[in-house]
Amino acid sequence: MSTKKQDRREQILRVASEVFATKGYHEAKMDDIAAAADVAKGTIYLYFQDKRAIFTELIDALSAQLSAAIIPVDTEADVVAQVKHNIRAVIGVLAQQPRVTSLLFDQASGVDESFRLKTDSFYRALKDLLASSLQEGQRLGIVREGDPKLYASMTIGALREVLVETGQKSGSKRTREQVVEAFFQVLQGGYLRLHPDRKGPKRRVYATIGAPPGKRRKAPDTKA
Q1: Mean pLDDT, to the nearest integer, of 70-76?
Q2: Please, which pLDDT band fits residue 77 given cuts at 50, 70 and 90?
């Protein structure tokens, strides 16, 4: 695909996210997106079959960005710094995509079945990923014993509320780093164990919110 076509596609996605956030996904029409992008409606259809296809690409892109932002937690290095990095990375990615985050976290999903299915699949994949990471963390001794699926649901629920509040212009004046520290303190007082059993297997584990095995990257050598 040429650069010009790619730029046009990205423009449509950007404008569509604004239209969805302003009018709501359910009320937004392809005509609205075309008008906001200042292009003919037919131009939109050259790139996307319908608004569901646009929404799907927005969510898939966000998921990819989240996975790419996460580092594997090395239990032989500074676990605290790495967990804080991952919390900071997740909040940072979602904060940089406020309109898409709003679609996921702050809009009802019961009106449009395709919308509900996509948002449900996003949450399900995120919870499964986190639960798997927490289960591995339990094996390595950096996560307390318990139901990893329940831990994952509680973590994502808390993160969702924080992001909804942060996204409200008239809301809290807390800085992102204050949010990171507070969120970390909650996890520290909950399921995290910051001193893993050194007698256990020495392997990297995705703690807090992790990336799939195929996305593993080397942890930083210095403290974050």
Answers
A1: 79
A2: confident
For residues 78 and 195, give the distance between their C-alpha atoms in angstroms, rounded to a whole number: 10
Q: CA nearest 133: which of 156, 100, 157, 159?
A: 156
- Is the C-alpha dihedral spanning 174, 180, 185, 190 positive or negative? positive
Residue 147: count of CB within 10 angstroms of its CB: 13
Burial classification of residue 156, based on how many CB atoms lie within 10 Å of its CB (0-12 exposed, 13-18 middle, 19 or more buried): middle
Nearest CA to 182 out of 202, 203, 165 is that of: 165
| Residue ranges of domains in the chain, CATH in brackets | 3-48 (1.10.10.60), 70-215 (1.10.357)
Q: What is the pLDDT of residue 115?
A: 78
Output the CA–CA distances (angstroms, integers) from residue 5 to 10, 55, 132, 147, 209, in the order listed. 9, 19, 39, 47, 34
185 vs 183: CA distance, rounded Å: 5
Say how many C-beta atoms besides its own lie within 10 A of residue 184's C-beta: 18
Mean pLDDT, to the nearest integer, of 50-67? 89
The predicted model scores a pTM of 0.74
pLDDT at 96 (0 to 100): 84
Phi, psi dihedral angles at 78 (to 5 degrees):
-80, 100
